[in-house]
Amino acid sequence: MVSFQSALFAALSWSVTPIVAMDNNWPIRCGIHYYDEKKNISFKVEKFVRETNVLTSMTLEVPGQHISSASLKTRTINTETIFQNPTEEKETFYVEKNLEQSDQGGLLMFEIANFGGELTYKTNETHVRLNLPSRLSRNVTGAYLNCAGDLIRPDNEISFYESTAR
């Protein structure tokens, strides 16, 4: 359980914005972007469509640092067990997976928006643990939910016939 003090610190440390990417007035990528300006850390959890699959991705960027591993723990999900084979890049940790068959993608987004989570990553031999804020604003959650709902609408031709991968 996260203490009140660490929850308050998390809320003050992170700038949180919705991710809504559009193409021809249709959403192609939806998510939540956390940014800590003081530590220059960018963390994104996103949903997008590739072929007919809705994928969930996690991206962590810490400029000047090589990230060897990263995971997010929420109330019931640990991304370390569901995401494997990160993309090897210097300053970016990226993983993606189709989590819709098990509902883990939706549950992950619900839990980080309402209850926050703990982001853990490793650079060189240093382990870093950061708390994400809970109870995100309605501006963030509303924009994400509206985007995600339209992303998977059957009449969203872009979602089903074109890849929205990065």
Give a short account of the largest sheet: 6 strands, antiparallel
The structural domain count equals: 1
Q: Going across the biggest sheet, name each strand in turn.
A: 1-2-3-4-7-6
Estimate the global geometry from the Cα principal axes: globular
Distance between termini? 35 Å
As a percent range, the share of helical residues equals 25-40%
Keywords for this entry:
alpha+beta, 5 helices, 9 strands, about 170 residues, about 40% strand
Summarize the structure in words.
With 166 residues, the protein is of the alpha+beta class. It has one domain (4-153). Helices cover 27% and strands 41% of the residues. It contains five helices and nine strands. The chain has a six-stranded antiparallel beta sheet. The longest helix has 14 residues, at 138-151.
Describe this structure in a few short sentences.
By secondary structure, this protein is an alpha+beta fold. 27% of the residues lie in helices and 41% in strands.
Topology:
Elements (H helix, E strand, L loop, with lengths): L3 H10 L1 E9 L2 E11 L4 E10 L2 E9 L5 E7 L5 H4 L4 E2 L3 E6 L6 H12 L1 E7 L2 E7 L5 H14 L5 H5 L5
Antiparallel strand pairs: 1-2, 2-3, 3-4, 4-7, 5-8, 6-7, 8-9
